[in-house]
Write a structure and sequence with these properties.
By secondary structure, this protein is an alpha+beta fold. About 75% of the residues lie in helices and about 10% in strands. A 4-stranded antiparallel sheet has the order 3-2-5-6, with no helix packed on it. The radius of gyration is 60 Å and the shape is rod-shaped. About 10% of the residues are buried.
Amino acid sequence: ARDDVERRRVLANSVVEGAAELENAREALAPHQATLNNQQQAVATATEQLAASRARLNQARAVANRARLDNEHAGNVVEHEAILEKLRQLKGYREKLAAARKALQGVKIDSEGLETLRDADNDLQVAMARVSSASSSIEISAEETFKLGVNDEAIDLAVGDTVTREFAAELNVTIPGVASIRVMPSQSANELERAAAGCREDCDRLLKQYGVKDLPDAIAKESKRAADEKEKEEWLNRIADFLGSETEPEWQAAADDLHARCKAYKDERAVEPELPATVESATAAKEVADKELLELEAEVETLLENREGQQEALNEAIAGIRIAETNANGLEVLARQ
């Protein structure tokens, strides 16, 4: 009987202790639940913040991409205008070259021809000087009025008039109805006149060949030709230096390509916001957009790490409350037994 009483006493104490442990276990659930609730709210808040930041990041990416394209377009516009300016400048150079070439058209005289003409003219001057030194003269005085012919020249003489002529070749004097007089120079003088005539023919032939009136005209035209030739060469060299290793068709093709790209971009781009007015403003806008994008990327990274940390804490809270619940449930089963 004593043993039975003792067993009942032990069992009663065990029941009391189990009930106390169960109560303690149930009370321990409350802090775990509070932690779980707080952590769930923290995860929800972190998720919302991350979503909002990601939305701003997507918008910033769109803005940065538009700013990049705007900046590229502005650079294309500047480059297109620069190429057009070079084409306009090249056109001016070619017009100058064409003018110099046109000035040279029809010009037959050159430095070599001028020297040939100088020599021929010098020969003529020497021959004429020799003729002059070997020539004779005739003087006719009128004692009454009459007509006179000297070679092919008709002369009217009045009483007291005198006419004088120098000659190195044969001279024909006619007095109509009265007499014909033929004056013959010496043989050497006649030869000198023929030589001078040959020099004169050579000069006339050269003047015609080179398209000039006389030696001074030839000198003037050769001087202008040399100046025009020099100007032509200068423009050829300037054009070659200006083009460098490139060609005008390459410049034109580049200008056409840039024009097409600029037009296509303006046609495709939204009207708002307006395009930057200058390449400087486009570059500044791109720098601002890139900076904001980097800041938002860093913000998203930070918020993502925070959300992951909060999720880990939530997982730990869930594990903790599950352990507490399992412990309380076990004690409750024991208490029922």
